[in-house]
Amino acid sequence: MPSRPILILGGTRDARDLATDLVARGLSPVTSLAGVTGEPVLPPGRVRIGGFGGTEGLAAYLVSETIAVVIDATHPFAARMSQQAAEACSRLGLPLLRLERPAWAPREGDRWSVVPSAVAAAAALPSGARVLLTIGRKEALPFFSRHDLSGIARMIETPDADVPLNWRLLRERPPFTLARETSLMTENGITHLVSKNAGGTLTEAKITAARACGTPVVMIARPPKPHTPVFTSTQDAAEAVERVLSP
Ligand code: NAP
User: Fold this and answer.
1) Long-range CB contacts for residues 24-30, cutoff 8 Å, separation at least 24
2) Model confidence at 2, in pLDDT bands (50, 70, 90)?
3) How far is the CA of 186 from the centre of ligand 1 (A)?
4) Which of 36, 72, 110, 184 has the most CB atoms lying inside 10 A of its own CB?
């Protein structure tokens, strides 16, 4: 008899890697994407795209698709989806695990200001700063509306807000190399890096480059997430899924 499907709440590289691992173990993952990226890189296994319609919609989906276990592998900043997953799973008594890369921590030589939000990050920048802005398109407006800032806004999608003339838009997807990040900062006279504390290795080169260049970093702290077992590696998460599914 085929095993009941496993729902991966995705939108991250970790989620794709987990789907690959689960398929290799003969399991049946369904990866869910929010549908915010125009041309997403699709994982192996089944994929569904678009919001569920809040906690109610997710709970209805979990029942109708006979999902056995949910793995929240969303980005550390996707707070709403994680909360809704916790509520829906708790209501149905379904196991919920989270796959989440550890947050970055400042090291010797780092010059971080830690702030709670993108709005606070924009407010923390000094007048005249030339910024490498590496946050999502939906959060660029507080930076673009400060006429005394300029720089490079790097994001996967075109921002919702118009890009002012003092900003250059770079539409790119990670990973980025250390050499690339260093030259991007030095050749463009970058004085400040703005980043979310995404963690993991995929986008860490910008943090290393900032350290090497002595560039101050405005680091947006992670939002709180619901209490649930957390795994930091794909393999550990996949093994936990196997344990949950074993009779
Ligand atoms: P969010 O604020 O937590 O969620 C907003 C709404 O988007 C949710 O209420 C849900 O809609 C829908 N949604 C989010 N993730 C979904 C998923 N995996 N499958 C189906 N629906 C989903 O999320 P967000 O910060 O906008 O992020 C959206 C997606 O982009 C996530 O999948 C996340 O992993 C990915 N991502 C986010 C960031 C970031 O910095 N926030 C960075 C990289 C990737 P309904 O209420 O209708 O179900």
Assistant:
1) 25/238, 25/242, 27/3, 27/241, 27/242, 27/245, 28/2, 28/3, 28/4, 29/5, 30/5, 30/6, 30/65, 30/67
2) low
3) 33
4) 72
